[in-house]
């Protein structure tokens, strides 16, 4: 099936891009939007307004639906196709491409899309909603986008605090777009006056990109702490120490606007340390069962060793992240980590060096 119209905005990557596109489309009924999905059956489900695959119903959703408010549908100004149909997108009308692919697959997918429609990728503003470090290159997502399109004025990243399911169900949240204003302003404009997503803009793209990676890693720690039944006070204190690790890393990277980054990522950290993020939930399950859930996409697990290596090269200590890595590598059991976690980073590096050389 051919794409029926020439969309101004295209998104790809699954649940977050669906939620993001829906919020933007509701706020801009005069514009055309398009979602790229991995498989033909996903496309058919979306065209049939069957989104249970993407957003499985939980108790909250059932209650929400019983009120008549949560029968979530995609507006009529959104179309769907598989990635291969991107070749039919008109590069003259496409203005914004939102990428929410897994960090390790982002480059491969965008290079494929560029191969079949180079002009569209090179002309559009590229926005990344992914948070991770590419293992093969140690590149952050903004650097991966730069490899796809070297025009930095057409690149930006997006951070929360928001969850795809919350956005999908129209719960108000905030989104921050970071990059050059020529890239962030048109994207933020899509959400001006939106009742769902409230946009902020920042010029600190590298710092917020790095903060998103650290947040995913620290989310695993948060999940471990929650799964180990540590007290709310201890968990909140852990968040403070995690933010200190992030601050030290930002300083080592000569980030110019550290306060802006910490403010911009603080909501994401709050969600994580309340156990509400995907990575935190993976940490909770690991604390309880000693293994990761197979169904979870846990960018934090993939980013953890490379972030620690990244920090070590810059002489930055991240003891809480180090302990988390030791737990996930099976060097120390989650319950054994409790005492060291409650010491809030004190002597963790030395402890690990002494016991797990």
Task: Describe it.
The chain has 357 residues and is an alpha/beta fold. The protein folds into two domains: 9-203, Rossmann fold; 213-355, Orthogonal Bundle (N-(1-d-carboxylethyl)-l-norvaline Dehydrogenase, domain 2), CATH 1.10.1040.10. It has helices spanning 15-27, 40-47, 59-66, 103-116, 118-123, 141-148, 164-168, 181-189, 205-227, 232-252, 258-273, 278-289, 299-313, 319-328, 334-342, 348-355; strands spanning 9-12, 33-37, 78-82, 96-99, 125-128, 133-134, 139-140, 155-159, 173-179, 197-202. A hairpin with a 4-residue loop joins β6 and β7. α9 (205-227) packs parallel to α11 (258-273) and α14 runs antiparallel to α15 (334-342). The protein is globular and about 60 Å long. Residues 63-70 have low confidence and may be disordered.
Q: What attributes does this structure have?
A:
single chain, 357 residues, alpha/beta, Rossmann fold, N-(1-d-carboxylethyl)-l-norvaline Dehydrogenase, domain 2, 2 domains, eight-stranded mixed beta sheet, two-stranded antiparallel sheet, globular
Work out the count of structural domains. 2
Order of helices and strands: EHEHHEEHHEEEHEHEHEHHHHHHHH
CATH H-level name of the largest domain... which superfamily?
NAD(P)-binding Rossmann-like Domain
Class per helix and strand makeup: alpha/beta
- Average of per-residue pLDDT values: 88
Q: Kindly identify the CATH topology of the largest domain.
A: Rossmann fold
Please count the helical segments. Answer: 16
Low-pLDDT windows of residues: 63-70
The rough form would be described as globular
CATH architecture assignment name of the largest domain: 3-Layer(aba) Sandwich
> How are the strands of the largest sheet arranged?
3-2-1-4-5-8-9-10
The description of the largest β-sheet is: 8 strands, mixed
């Amino acid at each position: 099936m051919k794409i029926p119209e020439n969309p101004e905005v295209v998104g790809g990557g699954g649940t977050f891009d669906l939620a993001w596109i829906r919020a933007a489309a509701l706020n801009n009924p005069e514009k055309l939007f398009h979602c790229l999905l991995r498989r033909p059956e996903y496309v058919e489900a979306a065209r049939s307004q069957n989104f249970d695959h993407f957003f499985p119903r939980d108790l909250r959703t059932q209650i929400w639906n019983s009120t008549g408010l949560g029968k979530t549908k995609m507006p009529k100004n959104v179309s769907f196709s598989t990635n291969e149909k991107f070749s039919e997108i008109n590069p003259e009308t496409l203005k914004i491409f939102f990428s929410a692919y897994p960090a390790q697959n982002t480059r491969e997918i965008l290079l494929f899309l560029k191969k079949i429609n180079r002009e569209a990728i090179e002309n559009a503003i590229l926005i990344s909603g992914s948070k991770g470090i590419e293992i093969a290159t140690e590149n952050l997502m903004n650097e991966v986008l730069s490899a796809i399109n070297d025009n930095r004025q057409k690149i930006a990243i997006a951070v929360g605090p928001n969850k795809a399911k919350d956005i999908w169900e129209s719960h108000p949240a905030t989104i921050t777009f970071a990059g050059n204003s020529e890239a962030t302003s048109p994207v933020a404009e899509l959400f001006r006056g939106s009742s769902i997503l409230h946009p902020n803009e920042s010029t600190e793209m590298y710092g917020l990109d790095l903060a998103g990676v650290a947040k995913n890693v620290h989310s695993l720690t948060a999940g471990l702490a929650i799964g180990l039944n540590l007290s709310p006070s201890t968990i909140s204190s852990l968040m403070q120490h995690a933010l200190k690790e992030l601050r030290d890393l930002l300083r080592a990277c000569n980030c110019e606007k550290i306060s802006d980054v910490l403010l911009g990522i603080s909501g994401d950290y709050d969600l994580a340390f309340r156990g509400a993020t995907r990575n935190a939930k993976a940490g909770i399950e690991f604390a309880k069962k000693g293994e990761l859930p197979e169904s979870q996409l846990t960018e934090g697990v993939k980013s953890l060793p490379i972030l620690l290596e990244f920090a070590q090269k810059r002489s930055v200590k991240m003891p809480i992240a180090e302990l988390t890595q030791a737990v996930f590598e099976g060097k120390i059991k989650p319950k054994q980590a409790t005492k060291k976690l409650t010491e809030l980073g004190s002597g963790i590096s030395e402890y690990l060096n002494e016991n797990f050389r």
